[in-house]
Amino acid sequence: MDSVPLLAVEDLRAWYGESHVLHGVSFVVNRGEVVTLLGRNGAGKTTTLKSIMGIVGKRAGSVKFAGRELIRLASNEIARAGIAICPEERGIFASLNVRENLELPPVVSPGGLTRARIFELFPNLAERLASQGTKLSGGEQQMLAIGRILRTGARLLLLDEPTEGLAPVIIQQIGRTIRALKNEGFTIILVEQNFRFAATVADRYYVMEHGRVVEGFAQPELDANRDKLHQYLGV
Fold first, then answer.
1. Which residues are bridge partners to 22 per DSSP?
2. Cβ-based neighbours of 147, under 8 Å, separated by 6 or more
3. pLDDT tens digit string along 166-204?
4. What is the pTM of this model?
């Protein structure tokens, strides 16, 4: 693993209008890792992903990707640098079919997955190419939302609540996909309320409270931190 993190976030602060949401978030993500941000609703997890991508009203601090400072770049420039986000609301275009949704984002660099490889990960999509995006099931929409960013060549994937509202069999498929993507060299930041799911894919965890990272530990330390996690997460 590289000594320099792929992503280094330091003292990241963010605002929506006058509302100060992030209060100095700091963490690192190494190349090839799956890192999960945990915390209760409102802790700042989604805002952290949006701040990395530059899609909040105002942000300050430092976000370095492969050593390059991104904090003053626009979101489209950040995407071209090799970061892609799969938002919680999925963002499927109702007027486009599956094929059109899949091919809409531009390829930003070599190394993106081919359509054939995406269909290996998500066979359902291959059968629904002509279907309107919003006529898919919730699970199929999530597959499409993830598949869409895999084409772009981005090497850091930001996945916001990818299992929310999905059936257990689809959650298992999403888990298999995340593990396969890690094996193919992708780096992933996962925001997830489903801690049981996160525990099956994550290498490391950061716990957020009130717009700050308050705890961090690796997968081998999970058992030793379970009681503390239950207190933080209220489960």
1. 14
2. 102, 113, 118, 121, 122, 125
3. 999 999 999 999 999 999 999 999 999 888 899 999 999
4. 0.94
